[in-house]
Amino acid sequence: MNPVMRKCLLLLPLFLSAMLSRSQSYPSNLTFQKNVYPVATLQVPYAEDVVSNAVREYMLAKGFTEAHYKDFMVFRSVPLDPGSAQSSDAYFNIVQKSHAEKDISIVSLLPVKKGATLAPANTEDSSGLRFAMMYLDSMRYHMHSYSMKQQIQAQQKMVDKIKSKMLVLKNDSGDLAKKIRGYESDLAQNKKDQDKQTREISSMSVGDEAGLAKAHKKMDKLLDEQTDYEKKLRNYKAELEKNTEDRATEQSIFDTANGQLEALKKRLDNLK
Questions:
Q1: Residue 131 is part of a domain; what is its CATH number?
Q2: Which residues contact 235 (CB under 8 A, 6 or more apart)?
Q3: Confidence of residue 23 (pLDDT cuts 50, 70, 90)
Q4: Most buried residue, 27, 106, 188, 258, by CB count within 10 Å?
């Protein structure tokens, strides 16, 4: 891994820590069916589907049942204020920030009076919104943790895929080396057989036409085999050279991918 890449990976945990310290919920407005609703909003640097799954997992783990209404993920009877016995229905709206920023999501939490229909008159007051902001903030760690784990799983699959390809290349390298040794041995034996055949031809009587024809035919076969062995050796040596280059390339790719995987794991540890 080059020094620049290594430095960038080492700086990622610091960047994430700084990002998390700034990533806090804030009051905002959400327009739905021509009505404007006051909501608690949180911006997180992950794709919409990942964040939706993180929110779903968090709420289901708390024992809440998921429901849906139009553009909302709904969980009933949620105690947004941990110090109160009162609960609200939590309406979550999760969208990507923009077409150009698909990896940034906007999470909005609209607190609605327990059991009431979604209407401006049924939204919680300012204190309810304040507790909704606190509730969103309490979910931040899980959103980041879940998203990081998804990235780690995807990166691990990539690393495993590269390792698998490296193993195939290594096995191919062994097979090619074995074939090269075999043909080098065959070629060496062929040269010995040619030398022997040359001596036999030299020792044969000029008048033995049939014997000479048979001996020359055998020599021609040995020469053809030599050409075939040399061709196969050139091809296998070229394949082995290409294999060596491919292994070096995959090793470099693996080092980078594995470094990124380790950096992601450290970032996850820094969240704890």
A1: 3.30.310.80
A2: none
A3: low
A4: 106
Greatest C-alpha distance within the chain: 121
Residue 38 has phi, psi (to 5 degrees) of -75, 130
Q: Which domain holds residue 127?
A: 25-154
Long-range contacts of 185-188 (CB under 8 A, 24+ apart): 186/225, 186/229, 187/226, 187/229, 187/230, 187/233
Q: Are 90 and 109 in contact (CB under 8 A)?
A: yes
Q: Are 147 and 181 contained in the same domain?
A: no
Say if CB 242 and CB 200 are below 8 A apart: no
**Number of folded domains that form the chain:** 2
The reported pLDDT for the residue numbered 107 is: 97
- For residue 112, what is the enclosing H or E element? strand 101-113
Domain annotation covers residue 254 = yes
